[in-house]
Write a structure and sequence with these properties.
The complex is a heterodimer of chains A (about 280) and B (about 750). Helix content of chain A is about 30%, strand content about 25%. Chain A has six helices and nine strands. In chain A, strands 1, 2, 3, 4 and 5 form a five-stranded mixed beta sheet that branches. In chain A, strands 7-6-8-9 form a four-stranded antiparallel beta sheet, with helices on both faces. Chain A starts with 8 loop residues before the first helix and ends in a 5-residue tail after the last strand. In chain B, about 25% of the residues lie in helices and about 15% in strands. In chain B, the strands form seven sheets. In chain B, strands 1, 2, 3, 4, 19, 20 and 21 form a seven-stranded antiparallel beta sheet that branches. In chain B, strands 9-10-11-12 form a four-stranded mixed beta sheet. In chain B, strands 5-6 form a two-stranded parallel ribbon. In chain B, helix 9 crosses helix 10 and helix 12 packs across helix 13. The longest helix of chain B is centred in the N-terminal third of the chain and has 70 residues. The chains are: A alpha+beta (about 280), B alpha+beta (about 750). Chains A and B meet through helix 1 and strand 3 of A and helix 1, helix 7 and strand 21 of B.
Chain lengths: ~280, ~750
């Protein structure tokens, strides 16, 4: 019994204090590590699909078919092309590209597809409608040339109506905005250069690039908000204006996020903004 | 007690280990995900990098061509074409007619071309560090090189095609190292300050797409099912040529055995392409045009009426059938896919392109004239007797003519003859009759241009006013019908009064011609007319229809400065002799008023099959509608030797292989090169001029640049130039049209190639 003396009260108090301090320290470290990991995961979860979206867009644009008599539906397009108009809020476009697409039951699939991008219920959708060779069918339309337009032939490529050929390509993307970069260096919301006297799209002859801005929110952060709030936020994020200098639109979007209400800060802070420019190889 | 304490300690270890494992798993998962995301990002980055590299490389290649143009002045036969880095032997057909050049080591290409800067690494035979190489079949995936096995659909090229060598690109641009070297400054030294560090490479081959038939325009549907004999209207519609759409693609030899494309197969393709125009029945791929005379198609490509067109074929017809439009090949890949879908012969693809452009501007020039467009032949439709007042302004602008109404004669005494309604030559402005052809610098009227072409002068010219006005009047009489006549005297002959005399055209049917040689009689009145129409000429072919091309000017009577007795064989405008002074006419007049157009072929094409398609089915005799048949083919198995096609291209003295044409005026030389292979008469010989003059051009380099770029690096342990590590790759087919005379890039189409 002589060698089995107990801890004194002071010893116990000190050891408990050290223990508490260690627990607190490791707890904070753990919380910080968890937060950093979660943040990194959210970032990866957002970056990865957005990168895929951009790669898909790059491939679609690289094989885009451009002729004066071939329709392009987009922001600012006007007759004889499909009417695009100003497109307040989220933008959309549709064009022909030599990329694979989903073909109908037709037995003569051609190598050209109709490509369309749009935001639907706060997600980015892409349509790749594989087109048949001309003369294959009275129902499955082939590539059509002006005066036939994309909107008159495939309305769903230019509006919000359902089409089974749409697929979800950007589940995190809720804001989609673009503008044109013209040969003159001017950024514009209509795809031709009025300075040269042009008045129609004319095969995008004046457009050297399309610059696309996206806003995306990871799936976990989306649970913190509602579709309607996200939609309202998207509307609060400005449209592109030709008066903006390069990069200024994203700055404005960042400001809109900072001043947004109705969405938890945790969700707002997880929103990521992207911009990428795609060269189009215009006519000389 | 001890046992209990041991268990507790064991549990604690297990719990701690479990936490460690859990944390480790979390860390590994996170790192794995981050790493995977990083790899994807790296892949995307390399893709973007190789894309940038490919586009920059294309810019370099194009800049080299532009530099070649700038350096290569003045334009001569020696530099009208881009130099080839494997120059064919004069008078022989090269094994790969379409190939102009490729990136090649020790490039000895002739001046003024810029060598390719390629290193001694072959894209096919020197695999990279990771074993990557570009196979020969891949280099020929466009099928522009003849296939080694014409019996299958594979793209393996003939042995004469060596794969291009790689051009290395350092931070400073294209570089030409012979070895890796040692740091610092080595091509594998990645330090930031090393400008020699190689960041990628590219290899390319350039093809003469302008020497191919643009399948967006070329070819026509054949009657289907084929009748026993082709309808006459089809024979003449095709045979008078005037558009590349009337090239007979069945002339082209596809295999060594001499097989050619079948008419039904070609018809299906045209029915797909011109769907709304020919309104076929059936379903793809078995589309059959509804009108076996093919009238709708000819109306589209020649215009209605067939007096000329303003269609550059850069856009579709704009017509609809069954809610569908005509089609166009949006890129070469689509052309290849159509052939696969229709089971067309892949071998034919070496003769077909999808991109052609030309500014419809003359190349021939003399003096100080500056012409920015050819004269539209269709303007001749307005030069008719007693024109409507609304036409007088344009007639004066285009012809320098003013119509003067005739007056009746008097029975006398004294007897005075009737004065026929006629033209006065007053020039494009003013009202006073001219005693000369006025000088000009730009925008000449018809007679100024004719005089400029035949006499080489654009200054005031009184020496040739009679002959020029007479030849112009003869042209008008060939062009108009035999019915339109002066209402006063009934004469159908074009009469032009100028200050100093009269110049008369020639009609073989003129009711106003006096006996004993009326064609027909009677002479229209008791008082005669003055001047009197010239006599009927035997053996003088009268078209009495609109010209289809400038080559048909060769039917017009060419009066001499001092007319003599009626010649037994009337002399006409001469396009059949190599030294003819009339030849520039071929370059200055056009059936197509479009300033920029598709569907013309490089007159200097080394693809004899293309020339064969243009010549075949051309009419050699207007009165009998005889056509050039197999003689035009490049098919040695079915065609006589020598053939006119071979003459145009391979004549050892004046063919295009030996002396490239500088402009359409050189067609007369090519006519001479064909000798008597089509016929011995001038009309038969000039078939070549009629077939080529509207559909050929020399002023534009239409090229297809096939370029593969790889981003990557040389690792520190690289020992040879082949040890390149490929990180990304991009391939493009750039279709580009560059004006040889101005260096202007007229148009371009970038086709991304995904394989």
């Amino acid at each position: 019994m002589k060698g089995r003396t107990a801890f004194t009260l002071v010893e116990l108090l000190v050891s408990v204090a050290v223990l508490v301090a260690l627990v607190l320290l490791f707890g904070r470290l753990f919380v910080s590590a968890t937060a950093i990991t979660a943040s990194g995961n959210k970032r990866i979860e957002t970056d990865r699909p957005v990168r895929l979206v951009f790669e898909r867009l790059a491939a679609d644009f690289a094989q885009m078919a451009k002729r004066p008599d071939l329709d392009f539906f987009g922001k600012g397009t006007a007759a004889p092309n499909s009417i695009g108009g100003a497109m307040p809020g989220n933008d959309r476009f549709a064009f022909y590209s030599a990329v694979p697409g989903y073909h109908a039951s037709s037995s003569s699939p051609g190598p050209i597809s109709l490509i369309a991008y749009r935001i639907n219920t706060n997600t980015l959708e892409r349509m790749a409608k594989g087109l048949s060779w001309n003369g294959t069918s009275s129902t499955d339309a082939p590539v059509v040339f002006l005066p036939l337009t994309i909107s008159s032939t495939w309305a769903s490529a230019t509006n919000s109506s359902a089409d089974s050929d749409y697929e979800l390509i950007g589940p995190h993307v809720f804001r989609f905005e673009y503008h044109y970069v013209l040969k003159s260096g001017v950024v514009a919301t209509i795809p031709w250069d009025t300075g040269t006297g042009h008045v129609t799209t004319d095969g995008l002859q004046d457009v050297v690039a399309i610059s696309i801005c996206l806003a995306a929110l990871d799936s976990k952060s989306r649970l913190l908000t509602s579709d309607s709030d996200l939609n309202a936020l998207a509307l609060a994020m400005n449209d592109f204006s030709p008066s903006l200098s390069p990069g200024e639109l994203l700055n404005q979007w960042q400001s809109a996020l900072s001043s947004a209400t109705g969405i938890p800060r945790r969700a707002l802070s997880a929103i990521r903004l992207y911009e990428r420019t795609f060269a189009l190889s215009p006519k000389p | 007690m001890t046992k209990i304490r041991r268990d507790t300690a064991g549990a604690a270890i297990v719990i701690v280990l479990a936490f460690v494992v859990l944390l480790a798993a979390m860390v590994i998962a996170y790192l794995s995900r981050s790493s995977s995301a990083r790899q994807i990002a790296h892949g995307a980055f390399n893709n973007a990098k190789s894309d940038e590299l490919a586009r920059s490389a294309l810019d370099i290649v194009v800049a080299d061509f532009k530099e070649e143009i700038v350096t290569g002045t003045p334009v001569t036969s020696a530099n009208i074409l881009p130099q080839r880095n494997s120059m064919p032997v004069a008078g022989t057909i090269p094994a790969i007619p379409n190939l102009i050049r490729r990136s090649v080591r020790s490039d000895s290409i002739g001046a003024p071309a810029v060598p390719s800067r390629a290193s001694a690494i072959n894209s096919c035979n020197d695999p990279s560090s990771d074993g990557r190489f570009v196979s020969l079949a891949r280099w020929n995936s466009h099928y522009l090189i003849p296939k080694t096995n014409t019996g299958d659909d594979k793209s393996d090229p003939i042995a004469a095609f060596p794969a291009p060598d790689w051009v290395l690109v350092s931070r400073n641009g294209p570089t030409l190292p012979t070895e890796i070297s040692t740091p610092p400054g080595a091509i594998n030294d990645s330090s930031n300050t090393n400008p020699n560090y190689v960041i990628g490479r590219y290899a390319y081959a350039v093809y003469d797409e302008g020497g191919l038939l643009d399948f967006n325009v070329a070819g026509y549907p054949y009657p289907s099912p084929s009748p026993v004999s082709t309808p006459l209207n089809l024979v003449t519609a095709v045979g008078r040529k005037g558009s590349i759409a009337l090239a007979d693609l069945t002339a082209m030899k596809l295999t060594a055995a001499g097989t050619t494309a079948s008419q039904p197969s070609l018809t299906k393709m045209i029915a797909w392409r011109n769907y709304a125009t020919v309104q076929p029945s059936g379903v793809f791929p078995n589309l059959i045009p509804s009108d076996q005379t093919e009238a709708p198609y000819f109306n589209y490509v020649l215009g209605t009426p067939a007096t000329g067109i303003s269609e550059g074929f850069l856009t579709g017809a704009g017509t609809l059938f069954n809610g569908r439009t005509n089609q166009a090949f949006l890129n070469r890949r689509q052309l290849i896919e159509l052939f696969r879908s229709l089971n067309g012969s892949i071998n034919m693809l070496q003769y077909l392109g999808t991109f052609s452009r030309e500014r419809n501007v003359p190349t021939w020039s003399s003096g100080t004239a500056v012409l920015n467009q050819c004269f539209y032949i269709g303007n001749l439709t307005t030069a008719v007797p007693n024109p409507a007042p609304a036409q007088t302004a344009s007639i004066q602008r285009n012809f320098g003519l003013r119509w003067v109404a005739g007056s009746p004669g008097s029975a006398g005494p004294p007897v005075t003859p009737a004065t026929p309604g006629h033209w006065q030559y007053v020039g494009s402005s003013g009202t006073i009759m001219r005693d000369r052809i006025p000088g000009f610098t730009t925008s000449p009227e018809f007679f100024q241009l004719l005089n400029y072409a035949m006499n080489g002068t654009n200054v005031d010219d009184s020496a040739h006013v009679f002959t020029t006005l007479s030849i112009g009047a003869a042209l008008i009489d060939q062009y108009d019908d035999a019915v339109l006549a002066d209402p006063q005297t009934g004469t159908t002959t074009t009469m032009i009064e100028y200050n100093g005399g009269w110049a008369l055209g020639l009609e073989n049917v003129d009711p106003a011609r006096p006996s004993p040689s009326p064609q027909p009689s009677p002479f229209p009145g008791p008082f005669g007319i003055s001047p009197t129409p010239p006599p009927y000429l035997a053996n003088y072919a009268m078209l009495n229809r609109p010209f289809r091309n400038a080559g048909e000017f060769g039917y017009a009577f060419r009066t001499s400065a001092n007319p003599t007795a009626t010649p037994a064989s009337p002399r006409t405008i001469d396009f059949a002799n190599a030294t003819s002074t009339d030849a520039p006419i071929l370059d200055l007049f056009t059936y197509n008023s479009a300033s920029l157009r598709a569907g013309t072929v490089n007159l200097n094409t080394q693809n004899i099959a293309v020339i064969a398609a243009i010549l075949r089915s051309a009419i050699t005799n207007e009165s009998t509608s005889t056509v050039v048949g197999l003689a035009a083919s490049n098919n040695a198995a079915a065609s006589p030797i020598p053939s006119p096609t071979l003459g145009v291209v391979t004549d050892p003295v004046i063919g295009t292989m030996t002396r490239p044409a500088i402009g359409r005026q050189d067609i007369a030389r090519l006519v001479a090169a064909t000798g008597n292979t089509i016929g011995s008469t001038e009309e038969a010989k000039e078939t070549v001029a009629r077939a080529l003059s509207e559909v050929s051009q020399t002023r534009t380099w239409v090229l297809m640049i096939d370029l593969i770029a790889q981003s990557g690096r040389y690792p520190p342990n690289a020992t040879t130039l082949a040890n390149f590590v490929v990180e990304g790759e991009r391939r493009y087919w750039l279709h580009i049209a560059i004006d040889r005379f101005t260096g202007e890039v007229i148009d371009r189409q970038l086709e991304a190639v995904y394989e």
